[in-house]
Task: inverse folding
């Protein structure tokens, strides 16, 4: 007799479970439509002229798509410069925040010193400080250092306000890392710097990806600090550059919509490509074991 291997069959779902999944998918589909529709509406809005914006229904399609709004936003609105400023300021602030947060988290979780709990508490207090309550003290501080209308003031503000949340996310992941690898490295004569850069830091790649995405989204969309500390066009970012199309007597609404679409697309693409990292990094650090 020949022995045959039987393939396992998938258990059939009961009628109640299938109905439940159907209802769940319908609800998720409705939620997805409500989430995506604002982006579709903004894209249609960016293709309208001022006459269509005020003369047609807000839900009407553009009769004569004004693709020139994008060219006008990129050239006449100086959006190309603002786009470049948003990119490099965001990158520098994100890198600085993640590196400093990794240093702090490593020192708190891997080194034994008397004030580590106090230092951690001081960083966590930063989560409770409203941004708007610090604008006047920060403006006075940067003014004394001649950093007003200087991108350094923006980078320092982004780094300071993002550090507490970044440390909190890294902390849960660091506490799950096995100490045996680092202890073995110490026995082999590895220095603390090599342990951090060659052992610990590579192991935290998933959660670092999470913090990079979160910080990138915040820095890219931030408006208050740039509007307060930056006055010249040389250092403005996309979020503030939109005001160029708002005049005293005339506002180019189509160009504003095109600028908003240009500012949304990079962060939207990055989120779609790396969104799974957010769930992976948070889930990896949510369970201590």
Result:
């Amino acid at each position: 007799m020949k022995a045959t291997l039987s393939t396992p069959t998938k258990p059939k779902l009961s009628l109640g479970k299938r109905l439940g999944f159907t209802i769940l998918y319908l609800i998720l589909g409705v939620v997805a439509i409500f989430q995506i529709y604002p982006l579709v509406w903004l894209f249609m809005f960016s293709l309208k002229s001022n006459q269509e914006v005020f003369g047609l229904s807000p839900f009407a399609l553009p009769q004569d798509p004004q693709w020139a709004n994008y060219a006008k936003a990129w050239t006449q609105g100086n959006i190309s410069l603002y786009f470049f400023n948003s990119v490099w300021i965001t990158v520098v602030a994100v890198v600085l925040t993640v590196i400093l947060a990794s240093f702090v988290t490593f020192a708190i979780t891997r080194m034994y010193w008397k004030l580590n709990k106090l230092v951690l508490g001081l960083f966590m207090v930063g989560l409770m400080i409203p941004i708007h309550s610090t604008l006047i003290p920060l403006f006075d501080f940067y003014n004394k250092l001649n950093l007003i209308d200087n991108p350094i003031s923006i980078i320092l503000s982004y780094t300071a306000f993002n550090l507490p949340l970044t440390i909190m996310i890294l902390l849960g992941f660091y506490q799950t890392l096995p100490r045996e690898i680092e202890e073995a490295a110490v026995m082999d004569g590895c220095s603390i710097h090599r342990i951090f850069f060659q052992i610990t830091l590579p192991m935290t790649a998933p959660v670092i990806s999470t913090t990079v995405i979160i910080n990138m989204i915040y820095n890219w969309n931030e408006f208050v600090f740039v509007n307060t500390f930056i006055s010249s066009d040389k250092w403005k970012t996309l979020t503030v550059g939109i005001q160029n199309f708002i005049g005293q007597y005339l506002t180019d609404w189509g160009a504003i919509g095109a600028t908003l679409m240009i500012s949304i697309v990079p962060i939207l693409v990055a989120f779609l490509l790396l969104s799974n990292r957010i769930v992976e990094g948070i889930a990896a650090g949510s369970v201590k074991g």
In short: The radius of gyration is 25 Å. The mean pLDDT is 83. Residues 16-46 form one domain.
